[in-house]
Design a protein that fits this description.
The complex is a heterodimer.
Chain A (H helix, E strand, L loop, with lengths): L29 E12 L2 E12 L2 E6 L6 H8 L9 E9 L2 E2 L7 H7 E4 L10 H12 L4 H14 L3 H4 L12 H13 L5 E5 L7 H14 L4 E5 L3 H7 L2 E6 L2 E7 H6 L4 H7 L5
Parallel strand pairs in A: 3-8, 3-9, 6-7, 7-8
Antiparallel strand pairs in A: 1-2, 1-4, 4-5, 9-10
Chain B lengths: L2 H41 L3 H4 L12 H32 L4 H15 L2 H16 L4 H26 L2 H9 L4 H12 L1 H16 L3 H4 L19 H10 L3 H38 L2
Helix pairs in contact in B: 1-12, 3-6, 3-9, 4-6, 5-6, 6-9, 7-8, 9-12, 11-12
The chains are: A alpha/beta, B mainly alpha.
C-alpha cells in the first residue's frame, strides 16, 4: 500500500491565526431565518438556495471573496435592493418571525426595524445632533428632552459621545473618517432597531479607527442582532460569535467562529481562511 | 531629426497655439470691458439712479429701466426656478431611467440652446396677442422660460453628484424618497443649486430679444404688471441705435451697469460655492 503523500489532517500546516474568539456561548433566540433564498440581478442568480438561522444578541459575520454574494445577502435583509430596478429576491426570509419579502411589507417600516451601516461613512449634510436624530424625527413623537437623551444614549452606545459632546452642532461631515463611521452607527441604533447590518464597516478606515469601531460592535452585541460583512478575516475572528463562509453565491458553511477559523469542515473554507485564494 | 526632438517640437508648437488662442479670447474680453468702461464711466452719475429715461435732448437717467429689469428678472426667477428645480429633481431622483426622462432631457437641451428671440415670439403669440397689449408679466414669463432649462440642468447635475451612499443611508433609516430629497439631498446639493439660480439670474438679466416682443419698453415710471414696462436691455437697444448723443451715453452707462451686475452675480456664485466647501471642510 502506497502511503498517502498528504499529511494527516490534524498535522496540516496552517497560516498563523489570530487568537481564537471566546468559545461558543449562549446565543439569543433565533432572530433571522432564511429558507430557500435566491437572489437575482436581472437574469444572473447571485444567491443560491440560502438556508440559515441567525441568533439574536450576537454578531454574525460573513466572509468570502469579492462577488460571493455576502453584500447581496445583507441588502436582502432590509430590502435595500428594492431601490434598484431588475433586482429581486425569492424564497422566505423572516425577521422576528415576520416575513419581510412579501408584497404587503411596508419597506420603510422594515428599514426602521433593520438598521444599516455602509462601507463608506455617509454623514448627512447637517449637524452631528441632527444626524443622530434623523431616524427619530422620521418616526415623530419624540421631542425635546426625550430626543436629546435618545441622541446622547445612541452616541454613548456607539462610543463616540466623549469625542463629539462639545460639538453636537458641528457639521457631521467635519468629523474624521472613523468618527463619521461611528456617527453613522449611532444614527442607525438611535431608533433601536431589532437588527443592525454592517457592510464592510471598516474597509475605508485606518487601523485605529477600525479598532474603535470593533470595540463599539462588541459593546453592542448584548443588545442587538448584528450581521456584519467583512473582507477582513481577523476582524471576523475578533468580533463575531458566528461566521459564515460564502462562495459564488453559496453559503458554504456557517458555525461558531472559533470552529470555522480552526477546524472548518469544507475544503473551500479552509483554503480561503488559510489564504490559498481570495 | 530624431524622434525625441520632433516630439519636443510638436509639444512646443501646441503650447504656442494654445497660448495664442487663450490670449485672443482674453484680449477680446479685455477690449469689451475696456470699451464699456471708457464709454460707460463718462455717463455714470447719480441721475442714472434717480431720474426717468429722458426724451431726446433732455436730461434723465435709467431709474424706470433699472426698476423694470429688477422686477421682471425677479418674477422670472420666481416663476421659472421652482419648475426647473422640481423638474431637475424628477430627472435625478424619480425618473432616472424612464423614457419620459430621456424625452425631457432632450427637450431641455433644445430649450437651453434655443435662440431667445424664439421664446419672445412664443410668449408674444400666447400672452401678448391674447391680452391685446405688451405687459411686464409677459416679459417675466419669457424670462421664466429662459430660466427653466438652466436651473433644471444644474439641479439634476448637482443632485447626481451627491454620493449614492447618502441616499441609501437615508432610505435605510426608513425615509421615503420625498423626505430623503428634502432633508438630505437638497442640503447636500445646496451650494450647487444656489449657483444654478445665480447663473440663471445672470443669464436672463441681460436678455433683450424676449423682452422686445413682450414687455416692450416704457418711457415713464410704471409699476403695473399688465402694462408695458421699461427695462435696461431694450432701453440700451433703442438708445444705442438712436442718433442722439445723450441717449447713446445713457446706453453705454446702462450696458456697463448690466455687465457689472452679471459679473458680480457670477463672482458671488463662485464665492458662495467656495465658502460652503470651506465650511464643510473645517466644520462649525
Amino acid at each position: 500500500m502506497i502511503p498517502s503523500t498528504k499529511p494527516p489532517k490534524h498535522l496540516k500546516m496552517r497560516a498563523p491565526r489570530v487568537a481564537a474568539p471566546e468559545p461558543a456561548r449562549d446565543l439569543g433566540p433565533p432572530k433571522i431565518e432564511m429558507r430557500a433564498l435566491n437572489f437575482y440581478y436581472g437574469e444572473t442568480r447571485a444567491l443560491h438556495d440560502i438556508n440559515m438561522t441567525l441568533a439574536d444578541n450576537s454578531i454574525s459575520a460573513f466572509i468570502g471573496p469579492s462577488g460571493c454574494g455576502k453584500s447581496t445577502l445583507l441588502r436582502v435583509l432590509n430590502r435595500m435592493y428594492a431601490l434598484y430596478p431588475k433586482q429581486r429576491a425569492e424564497g422566505e426570509v423572516l425577521i422576528g418571525g415576520r416575513d419581510i419579502l412579501g408584497p404587503m411589507v411596508d419597506v420603510a417600516e422594515l428599514r426602521y426595524r433593520v438598521g444599516m451601516v455602509f462601507q463608506k461613512p455617509t454623514p448627512f449634510p447637517m449637524s452631528v445632533f441632527d444626524n443622530v436624530a434623523f431616524g427619530l424625527r422620521l418616526v415623530g413623537g419624540i421631542r425635546g428632552a426625550e430626543l436629546k437623551s435618545r441622541v446622547e444614549s445612541a452616541l454613548r452606545d456607539a462610543a463616540i459621545w466623549d469625542e463629539v459632546k462639545d460639538k453636537l452642532n458641528a457639521d457631521g461631515r467635519s468629523l474624521s473618517g472613523g468618527q463619521q463611521q461611528r456617527l453613522c452607527i449611532a444614527r442607525a441604533i438611535a431608533v433601536k432597531p431589532e437588527v443592525l447590518l454592517l457592510d464592510e464597516p471598516t474597509a475605508a478606515l485606518d487601523p485605529i479607527s477600525t479598532l474603535r469601531v470593533e470595540e463599539t460592535l462588541q459593546a453592542l452585541r448584548e443588545k442587538y442582532c448584528i450581521v456584519v460583512v467583512t473582507h477582513n478575516l481577523q476582524q471576523a475572528a475578533r468580533v463575531s460569535n458566528v461566521t459564515g463562509f460564502m462562495f459564488m453565491g453559496d453559503l458554504v458553511e456557517i458555525g461558531p467562529s472559533n470552529q470555522i477559523f480552526t477546524s472548518p469542515t469544507d475544503r473551500r473554507t479552509d483554503d480561503y481562511i488559510t489564504g490559498r485564494f481570495g | 531629426m530624431n524622434r525625441r526632438a520632433l516630439r519636443k517640437l510638436k509639444n512646443a508648437a501646441f503650447l504656442f497655439l494654445s497660448l495664442i488662442a487663450t490670449m485672443t479670447g482674453l484680449a477680446c474680453l479685455g477690449a469689451i470691458l475696456w470699451t464699456l468702461l471708457s464709454h460707460g464711466l463718462a455717463g455714470m452719475s447719480l441721475h442714472l439712479f434717480t431720474q426717468m429715461t429722458p426724451p431726446p435732448g433732455g436730461q434723465g437717467g435709467l431709474l424706470n429701466a433699472l426698476y423694470g429689469s429688477g422686477v421682471m428678472t425677479l418674477l422670472g426667477i420666481l416663476i421659472g426656478s421652482p419648475i426647473g428645480v422640481l423638474a431637475g429633481t424628477y430627472l435625478a431622483e424619480y425618473g432616472r431611467n424612464s423614457r419620459l426622462s430621456t424625452v425631457i432631457r432632450f427637450i431641455n437641451d433644445v430649450l437651453l440652446s434655443a435662440p431667445s428671440i424664439i421664446i419672445g415670439l412664443f410668449v408674444y403669440e400666447i400672452v401678448v396677442v391674447r391680452m391685446g397689449h405688451f405687459s411686464a408679466i409677459a416679459g417675466a414669463l419669457a424670462l421664466a422660460i429662459l430660466a427653466i432649462p438652466v436651473t433644471l440642468r444644474t439641479t439634476e447635475d448637482m443632485l447626481n453628484l451627491v454620493p449614492v451612499g447618502m441616499k441609501d443611508s437615508s432610505a435605510a433609516l426608513g425615509a421615503y424618497p420625498w423626505r430623503t430629497t428634502l432633508s438630505v439631498l437638497y442640503p447636500a446639493a445646496r451650494s450647487g443649486i444656489v449657483t444654478g439660480l445665480l447663473l440663471a439670474i445672470a443669464r436672463i438679466s441681460g436678455e433683450t430679444a424676449p423682452l422686445l416682443f413682450t414687455a416692450l419698453n416704457n418711457q415713464f415710471w410704471s409699476t403695473q404688471l399688465n402694462a408695458p414696462m421699461a427695462n435696461l436691455p431694450v432701453v440700451i437697444f433703442q438708445f444705442a441705435l438712436s442718433p442722439y448723443k445723450d441717449w447713446q451715453d445713457l446706453a453705454w452707462a446702462g450696458a456697463l451697469i448690466i455687465t457689472v451686475t452679471i459679473l458680480i452675480l457670477s463672482i458671488s456664485a463662485r464665492v458662495i460655492l467656495s465658502l460652503l466647501q470651506a465650511e464643510r471642510g473645517s466644520g462649525r
